[in-house]
Each structure stands twice: as C-alpha cells, then as structure tokens.
Amino acid sequence: MSAVPRSEKAERPAKPAGRFRRMLDRLSTSQEDLESEELQEDAQASGCTRIAECNDRQIVRVTGTLRTVTLRPRAGVPALEAELFDGTAPLDVVWLGRRSIAGIEPGRKLIASGRISMNHGRRVLFNPKYELRPLGQE
Questions:
Q1: In angstroms, how far is CA 85 from the centroid of its own chain?
Q2: I want to staple 133 with a disulfide (CB 3.0 to 4.6 A). Which of 87, 109, 113, 117 is the partner?
Q3: Residue 74 and residue 6: Cα distance in Å, rounded?
Q4: Mean pLDDT (whole number) for 6-26
Q5: Residues 50, 132, 114, CA angle at the centre, nearest 5°?
Q6: pLDDT 10s digits, 64-107
Q7: In angstroms, rounded to a whole number, what is the distance separating the alpha carbons of residues 91 and 61?
Q8: Phi and psi dihedrals of 48, rounded to 5?
Q9: CA distance 82 to 94
Q10: According to DSSP H, which parts of the chain are helical?
C-alpha cells in the first residue's frame, strides 16, 4: 500500500510527450479526427465559442467549415441552409429569403455571429452576421 492517496498521485499526461509517440498517434488517428482537432484549435485561436458549448438563446461568435449548403424553402420563403462544423458539434446556419450567397459553398471556412436557437434538437443560427475566411488560410 502507498502512503499517498490515489487522488494525489501523479497522473499520466493526456498528450504523449515523445516525438516518436506523437508521430505514431498521428499515423493511427483517422483523418476525420485530425480535421476535427484542427478545427477546434482554429476556433480557440480565433477567440470564438465552441459550438458544443452554445446554449439556446445565447449570442455567440463561432467559426468552422461549411459541410453542406442547400436551398430549402421555409414556409414558402426561400432559405439558404448550411451546416457549419467546428470539430465539436454541427450548427445549422440559415439565411431566410436568400437563394444563394457568393462565397457560401461547401468546404469554405467562415466566422458567424448571432443568437443561437434550438430547432428539433439542433442548434440553428438565423440570418447571422458572417465573415468569409480568406481562401489562403484553408
């Protein structure tokens, strides 16, 4: 038995310390996990809120990559819908009354801000303010 309680014992670091171990972990991790980790780091570096941490009726500034862009009418009004993903969770971004917006296309990175709402269990951002990220940073 040890004299030091379990809670006080030194725990192993979450990230591998050695260069070889990091390389090995990177090779064994899926491409989706690597992209997710990169998006999370980008969101943190830009000072944006993680989508998974956004609550209903909260005013937020989020960033991520557009996965899909579709034209879907809502109550007879055209609506451009896009799914924004930051590595933690998806967010539906909806521009009401728009059929298309220049630069809004799958794979494009952007920063969006506005008030989050919940619709059928999914986070939605209606008519957000947005900034397209320069193409060279993708």
A1: 4
A2: 109
A3: 56
A4: 60
A5: 50
A6: 999 999 999 888 889 999 999 998 999 999 999 999 999 999 99
A7: 12
A8: -95, 160
A9: 6
A10: 19-28, 31-45
Average pLDDT, the chain: 83
Distances (CA, A) of 52 to 99, 114, 137: 28, 15, 23
Rounded-to-integer distance, Cα 34 and Cα 1, Å: 41
Name, in order, each residue with C-beta under 8 angstroms of 19's C-beta and a sequence gap of 6 or more.
Answer: none
Q: What value does the CA radius of gyration of the chain take, rounded to a whole number of Å?
A: 19
Strand partners, 115: 59
In 3-state terms, what secondary structure has residue 26?
Answer: helix
* Cα 64 from Cα 62, distance rounded (Å): 7
Helix (H) or strand (E) holding 118: strand 109-119
Please report, for residues 7, 61, 93, the alpha-carbon distance to residue 128 in angstroms, rounded to integers and kept in the order given: 46, 10, 7
